[in-house]
Amino acid sequence: MVFRYVSSDFGNHPLSHLMGSVFGMHNRENVEVFCYALSPNDGTEWRLRIQSEAEHFIDVSSMSSDMIAKMINEDKIQILVNLNGYTKGARNEIFSMQPAPIQISYMGFPGTTGASYIHYLVTDEFVSPLRFSHIYSEKLVHLPHCYFVNDYKQKNLDVLDPNGLPKRSDYGLPEDKFLFACFNQLYKMDPDIFTTWCNILKRVPNSALWLLRFPAAGETRLRAYATQQGVQPDQIIFTDVAMKSEHIRRSALADLFLDTPLCNAHTTGTDVLWAGLPMVTLPLEKMATRVAGSLCLATGVGEEMIVSSLKEYEEKAVSLALNRPKLQELSDKLKAARMTCPLFDTARW
User: Which domain holds residue 277?
Assistant: First the structure.
């Protein structure tokens, strides 16, 4: 069987951070793997790794979409995988020419493509339940456990070294406060969830919320909104975005991660769970709203982190913050599961 992966993200991009080992892990006795790079070499270790581990790696960044589709068709490829969907750098016109008999969407875009030329969507039973199959144009391929593969066990083991953990003071974070956190891009937040966070901060004594300048332009507006909701200025803390390994390592400085329901933490969710940081997440209907729940379930302790309403979300966050032994127990279970749970087992995936 021949698999061909098409992506503009073979380089320093979250997709390569997550899937770096996958292309070389296929059983070569049964599967022949080709990677088509839609972007030129960025010179990073991420590009070099995939290029060296994939059985075949072809840079097609200088070719027209017509030429790429023609080449794929002439090679009589069986399965063509779109790792972009509707993301930056995508060239979905290649797939629209239907150069392969089976065309699949995976990983890059967390939702239906709505395209008749994409036949299957690789997902899982929690993220895309059959009861919601009517919102997808593709046939659903359910992987066991979580569809969202990652490479942390291979690339981020150093993060687990307790001797390498930073201190809150390194980032100007308060040592004495209960620290909620959300490291998602700010566009994922809506008034309902931010109001809920403000309610949580008002109910938990000596607490603060740690956000990222992601982008920096959002800081002033969010601070103003929090003030309108009665939150004290020192309860909202912003820091700059950090490099990947530092970002994961410093995530453990927080006490509880608060997810955004309308568009979940995906890569970020995997980051914080690998750091051993529990979260509260509220799955809705669409794929992008359910990914964090799937991540949590694949750790084996997800039932303690998933809620079913915004009110329950608030109550769960408050109750965990006010019951430190219970929160510590959850964190300990999460940390103990990292090396054995399905979420971080790339080879099992």
Answer: 154-344
